[in-house]
């Protein structure tokens, strides 16, 4: 032990702690945990399981990382949690390890903010620069793309995909996919339009944003289902050169859960 580790912290012999990382009072670090450089582990944090954490992460008090999944099929398998760099996990964040029936790993990218009481269930995949406000809960197997913002008190059902740049309003219940750069909220969540601010922040040109908005409105007003709309060449011809629309089309065609309905 040294001045970086509080004397009440319990750090297993097999744990690997990077240079500059500090560990506060009453923390418990398991034997299969690897923590990178310059992380700040505040008081009463528990990190268990086969967990790999990158550099410059901050964990506030009472976080629980790498614990067994809430899955009845789990049998003490050596599944994992992997966390990138420069993330902030506020009070009571919990991230459970993966299961053998999926990718065997729960993943959080880099430069994310998880506010108090956020939960990532088993086999969840979260991208980079994601913000989840207080009491957001992700069930098992959920996938969240880069630059997504999720309002507080939101619950997302298992296997749902929230694509890159989406914006989810607070207190939403999501049981269908949310396409690229769409906004949605409600219980159950409905699509409310395009995340124009997110597109601007991503550096998308004004003309391209206008096309995306027109595409969304045309698809919403159509008598066709979204899948039929995007598979109809004549309807999609005006948007043939828009990369974002092409990605939305691919998501709509490939989704297994279906996309959230439009606001009516």
Can you characterise this structure?
- With 264 residues, this protein is α/β, with parallel strands linked by helices.
- It has 2 domains: 10-141, UDP N-Acetylglucosamine Acyltransferase, domain 1; 199-254, no CATH class.
- The chain is 16% helix and 26% strand.
- It contains 5 helices and 27 strands.
- The strands form 3 sheets. Strands 3-6-9-12-15-18-21-24-26-27 form a 10-stranded mixed sheet. Strands 1-4-7-10-13-16-19-22-25 form a 9-stranded parallel sheet, with no helix packed on it.
- A hairpin with a 4-residue loop joins strand 26 and strand 27.
- The longest helix is centred in the last third of the chain and has 16 residues, at 206-221.
- The protein is elongated and about 70 Å long.
Which descriptors apply to this entry?
9-stranded parallel beta sheet; elongated; alpha/beta; about 25% strand; 2 domains; about 260 residues
Low-confidence stretches: none
Q: DSSP helix count?
A: 5
The CATH level-2 architecture of the largest domain is identified as: 3 Solenoid
Overall mean pLDDT: 97
User: Can you list the strand order of the major beta sheet?
Assistant: 3-6-9-12-15-18-21-24-26-27
| CATH H-tier superfamily of the largest domain | Hexapeptide repeat proteins
Question: In CATH terms, what is the fold-level topology of the largest domain?
Answer: UDP N-Acetylglucosamine Acyltransferase, domain 1
* End-to-end Cα distance: 61 Å
Structural class by secondary-structure content: alpha/beta
Q: What fraction, in percent, of the residue positions are helical? A: 10-25%
What fraction strand?
A: 25-35%
Instruction: Estimate nothing, just give the exact number of structural domains.
Output: 2
Largest sheet descriptor? 10 strands, mixed
What would you report as the Rg, rounded to the nearest angstrom? 20 Å
The first-level CATH class name of the largest domain: Mainly Beta
Overall body shape: elongated
Number of strands: 27
């Amino acid at each position: 032990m040294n001045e970086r580790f509080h004397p009440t912290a319990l750090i297993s012999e097999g744990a690997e702690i990077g240079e500059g990382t500090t560990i506060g009072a009453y923390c418990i670090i398991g034997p299969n945990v690897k923590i990178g450089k310059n992380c700040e582990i505040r008081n009463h944090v528990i990190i268990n399981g086969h967990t790999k954490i990158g550099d410059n992460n901050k964990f506030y008090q009472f976080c629980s990382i790498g614990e067994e999944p809430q899955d009845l099929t789990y049998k003490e398998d050596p599944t994992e949690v992997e966390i990138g760099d420069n993330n902030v996990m506020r009070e009571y964040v919990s991230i459970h390890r993966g299961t053998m029936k999926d990718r065997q790993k729960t993943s959080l990218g880099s430069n994310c903010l998880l506010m108090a009481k956020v939960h990532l269930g088993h086999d969840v995949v979260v991208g980079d620069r994601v913000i989840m406000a207080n009491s957001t809960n992700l069930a098992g197997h959920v996938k969240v793309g880069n630059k997504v913002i999720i309002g507080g008190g939101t619950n997302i059902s298992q296997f749902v995909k929230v694509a890159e740049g989406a914006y989810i309003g607070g207190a939403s219940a999501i049981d269908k996919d949310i396409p690229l750069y769409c906004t949605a909220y409600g219980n159950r969540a409905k699509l409310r339009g395009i995340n124009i601010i997110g597109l601007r922040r991503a550096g998308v040109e004004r003309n391209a944003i206008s096309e995306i908005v027109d595409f969304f409105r045309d698809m919403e007003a159509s008598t066709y289902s979204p899948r039929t709309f995007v598979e109809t060449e004549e309807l999609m011809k005006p948007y043939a050169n828009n990369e974002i629309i092409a990605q939305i089309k691919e998501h709509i065609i490939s989704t297994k859960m279906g996309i959230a309905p439009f606001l009516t």
